[in-house]
Amino acid sequence: MEATRRQWPLHAGLLLTWFVASFGVVFFARDLQNLLPGWPLAFWYAAQGALLVFIAIVVVFARAANRREEPDPDFDLQAFGRQTRRYHWRFGALLLGLVAVLLALAAAERWGLHKAWIAGIFLSATLVVYSIIGVYGRTSEATEYYVAGRRIPGFYNGMATAADWMSAASFISLAGGLYLQGFSGSGGQPGGLAYIMGWTGGFCLVALLVAPYLRRLNLYTVPDFFAMRFGGRWPRLIAALATVVVSFTYVVAQIYGVGLITSRLTGVHFEIGILLGLGGVLVCSFLGGMRAVTWTQAVQYWVMILAFLIPVSWLAYKQVGDPLAPVAYSQQLQKIAAMEQRLMDSPLEKQVIAEYALRAERLESKLHDVEHALQTERQELRARLNAMGSKADDEVANQLRRELAALPRDVAVARERWTRLAQDYRERARPLGGLAPHARPFEGDPNGNADEQDLFQTSRLNFLALVFCLMVGTAGLPHLLTRYYTTPTVAETRRSVAWSLVFIALLYVSAPALAVLVKYEVMAHLVGQPFDALPTWMAQWSRDASLLSFSDVNGDGILQFAELRIGPDLVMLASPEISGLPYVVSVLVAAGGLAAALSTADGLLLTIGNALAHDVYFEGDSSKAQSMRRVMWSKFALLVVALIAAYVAAQRPAGILYLVAASFSLAGAAFVPAMVLGIFWRRATRLGAVGGMLTGLLVTAWYMVINHAGVRSYLGLMGDGLWLGIQPVSAGLFGVAAGLLATVLLSLVSTPEPTPSAYEAAVRA
Fold first, then answer.
1. Non-local CB neighbours of 673 within 8 Å, separated by 6+ positions
2. What are the tens digits of pLDDT across the range 493-538?
3. Integer Cα distance of 564 and 554 in angstroms
């Protein structure tokens, strides 16, 4: 720990920089609206500036810490360099092959090859490549299966980590979330650029506080740290339980994305799409563990980054004549602000808003006496159907039968459905159909009346809370931290964190650009069009109402902005069609989304299987006699969990973005307080670690569940039940605070155990 003490001034300075960059600047975002050359300063900072600061922090720390650290005498640097150069040649050839296949399919499309063949060929090609890597990397050795033999270069581990990190939420839903929420979201959807800042700023905590110290211990799993640091059985078991809960929540979202994309590509039902995609997940993670998953994820990174950058670059070139989307979209942001004002002043938009308000009032009146309203509506429909007599077979009668069949089956279902619909209509009965002005930081007005000031404070607090939860959750995600066990040295781990953030930044600076460019396309070229002149892609995507829906609410035959609802998962997936690109690019985007979901699902399922087999069943037994059995049990647990997660995902429990964000709150609350205190505070005890993990996890889970709309309706709870107005997705704010307090207090009142000898030896090394 002497080296750690020497680095404390560096740690303190960089952590202070991180804190100011994360929370200090954004706190004053409403006052930072002065324009850079064409940019609202606060928007540019949250979308790009903070990310540049985070990269600088991680790079400076890696270079400074690595210069101070004595080189490992057992590490053959020359052999490592030769092996890395061989990897460069292989990946260069693979990238050229990928580009060649894309160009060949583009040419084939021009020559008339059917779309189904294009989709089938490209999807099959990518899955075959992933499968070959999985088969080639198959292993039964524990070190290879759990940590890829600890010989992955930091550059490629950073690439694999980026793919593991940029899940279906980042690839599929992030741009859509930014489209809907703008800078900071509104109402029950706080977020927007909080996702960009939170999911990148967390890597500063990973680099400064966690990853290098865990790598020094030569572990296999995150629960291994708790067992080594605190001793005894319970720290490992509680950490393994938390690992399963966090990773399962996360993996359900990924498998949901797999089903969404696979069904879109192949035309099969959503549930069948889940099973087809799941096969691709299991080939790599089941056969080769971390060894196969690492190289598969490195390949998947390039598939997804090309799939993201090509449509956004083309859309930027089409609109402003510059393919550098992160630089070029500022002028479209200003045009959107002007169009938003025109829409808010439009009489036609106000007609649509009034109709939604009327629908909400009707539903709210039914909620005063749900049983009577349901019975009355059922009797009226039956009476109208009976009154038709001999005309009972015409279309009107069939419509009445459908309405009768669609009525809620009982009072509880009616109350839940009507409450949800009334809330939805109330949300859409707001200017811009409930969407926040894109570049506005926070709702309300700090200079307005008392209600507006309260709304502003709550909106800003929710934004900062979500940033905090995503950052701290990043530092606690087991599947992410395990990736840094695969590098050969601690110095290479630091470089790997820096490379991870650089690779991630390529997508994260482009996602806000895509959201703005698509919103401009919608406002400028779709809104105001007759319904019978809308592009064909809208009819195709509207088959799934959760992705796209539109209806002529005010009956004028013209599409108004408030009549159009775009789901967050549509913006990226439909971007090639919105841009007018060839179908082969649509296939590439779908393959990129599939790669994003598969890469993260691989890592998560592997983490869950390892936690159950290595940490629960064998409790870390590393004897050679048990090694093969342990790997076999990990594979079995992985298969069972994958099937359970597929079933849960098929129920569509929530949106991808929400499920992923919720898993970050759970991870931060469960792991970070006890883990960081265990690394840096010698007084932390076993009781403190166990109590802190349980307290953080339970407080976070309870707050999320008790504030779920369906749960509150079922229990008959009134009001929103929020603390300080914080939305459930940011429940980790309370969980981290509770877990930190419990860890400190229980450690102070309990007797410290002797530090296990294995931990002391690893730290001294």
1. 692, 696, 736, 739, 740, 742, 743
2. 999 999 999 999 999 999 999 999 999 999 999 998 999 888 988 8
3. 12
User: Which residue type does 600 have?
Assistant: T
pLDDT digits (tens, 9 = 90+) for 682-698: 899 999 999 999 999 99
Q: How does 70-100 read in b/e, with b if 16+ C-beta sit within 10 Å?
A: eeeeeeeeeeeeeeeeeeeeebeeeeeebee
Neighbours of 305 (CB within 10 A): 23
Q: Which residues of 131-159 are buried (b: 16+ CB within 10 A; e: fewer)?
A: bebbeebbbbebbbbbbbbbbbbbbbbbb
User: 68 vs 77, 217, 485, 491, 579, CA distance in Å?
Assistant: 17, 19, 21, 10, 50
Confidence of residue 625 (pLDDT cuts 50, 70, 90): very low
Evaluate whether 294 touches 157 at the Cβ level (below 8 Å). yes
Residue 329 CA to residue 321 CA, distance in Å, equals 10
Tokens 């709870």, located at residue = 717
Comparing C-alpha atoms, which of 469, 2, 506, 460 is closest to residue 205?
Answer: 469
Which two three-digit tokens encode residue 356?
Answer: 């939604």
| Residue 186 φ then ψ, to 5° | -160, 155
Separation between Cα atoms, residue 749 and residue 39, nearest integer Å: 54
Task: Pick 400 or 548 by higher pLDDT.
Answer: 548
Q: Which amino acid is at 505?
A: A
| Dist. CA 386–CA 397, nearest whole Å | 9
Instruction: Please give the sequence-ordered ranges of beta strands (E in DSSP) within 135-267, or none if there are none.
Output: 185-186, 189-190
Residues 252, 644: Cα–Cα separation, whole Å: 9
How open is the CA angle 327-331-332, to the nearest 5 degrees?
Answer: 100
**Antiparallel, parallel or unpaired: β 548-550 and 189-190:** unpaired
Which of 486, 432, 530 shows the shortest CA–CA distance to 157?
486
**Distance of alpha carbon 210 from alpha carbon 208, whole angstroms:** 6
Position with higher pLDDT, 435 vs 656: 435
Q: Which amino acid is at 350?
A: K
How many Cβ atoms from other residues are within 10 Å of residue 284's Cβ?
A: 33
The string of pLDDT tens digits covering residues 5-42 is 556 788 889 999 999 999 998 999 888 877 666 788 88
Please state whether beta strands 39-40 and 185-186 pair in parallel, antiparallel, or not at all (unpaired): unpaired
Q: Which of 668, 600, 608, 664 is nearest to 162 (CA)?
A: 600
Residue 290 φ/ψ, nearest 5 degrees: -65, -30
Closest CA to 311 of 581, 529, 15, 678: 581
| pLDDT for residue 196 is more than 70 | yes
Q: Check whether 765 has a pLDDT greater than 60.
A: no
The string of pLDDT tens digits covering residues 364-373 is 888 888 888 8
